[in-house]
Amino acid sequence: MNVCVVGAGVVGLTTALELQSELRNANVTVLADRFEQDTCSDVAAGLFRPGTSFSGPTEEITRKWISDAYSYWDELRKKEYSVKAGVCQLSGYIFSSRDPAIVRNHYIEKVVPVYRPATEPELRLCPGEWKYGSFFTTILAECRLYQPWATERFLENGGQIVKVASLNSFRELQGSKYDVVVNCTGLGAKRLCSDHKLVPIRGQITKVRAPWVKTAFYADFDTYVIPGFEGVTLGGCRNYDSYNTEVCRHDTAAIRERCEALLPSLKECPRSFGKRLV
């Protein structure tokens, strides 16, 4: 059997590895126009914290997806090569001065090892009039490390990678040597599948060097500070139906201002560059 995975972001590469594991006699190819540093996955902080509005076909299926995904990354965390793969365990806080629902996550509260209300002393860890808070422990998969590791492992397992200039329709793959085509194109599926309901949500982050930050922090207005293996990710923004992939200096300034107010020690960091993530 010849299987083609279209898309080489974190989803495409992970799917390709799973196909190699489950279909031992299959020839698996990853086909894409962008790889590693050119993908949106490359700039993602990689914290396992699905949005509370995430939805699959049914509630039961959605919860199984999330539970299975956490188990996958948690098992990878326990492997001897986890550091090279960029996977580790990370704890963090979510604070809000506006609504208790902001600090809850009904999808992962019973999946991750720890998810509890923040104590009164913990609510005072960061400047601000925080009324609500939660502490949780989850998985971090830093895609900037994971993608090269996954690519190397995929090739070692006999996989093939094909770079294409563009793919305008899955019909272009009809009559090819592939018996199965797996769609992992993300936003690209809007064009490839004529899915008009699929829209981008533009985000922007900034990467800084702050090795003293060992805990993640979330707060109101899409503010977050997430330490990783190679720096700290500061965010963010959430622009619905925006196709802008350029770094906006106004977003960068707002992100720095909000994150430094949340964690004042970040003011000591040299100002870094903004990154887009659509």
From TrEMBL:
Cofactor(s) recorded in Swiss-Prot or TrEMBL: FAD
Gene Ontology BP terms: D-amino acid catabolic process
Coiled-coil ranges from the UniProt annotation: none
InterPro entries: DAO, FAD-dep_OxRdtase
GO MF annotations, alphabetized: D-amino-acid oxidase activity; FAD binding
Keyword Chloroplast: no
Domain FAD dependent oxidoreductase: 3-270
Cellular component, GO annotation: cytoplasm
Keywords: FAD, Flavoprotein, Oxidoreductase
Family: Belongs to the DAMOX/DASOX family.
Protein name (Swiss-Prot/TrEMBL): Putative d-aspartate oxidase
Organism: Anopheles aquasalis (Malaria mosquito)
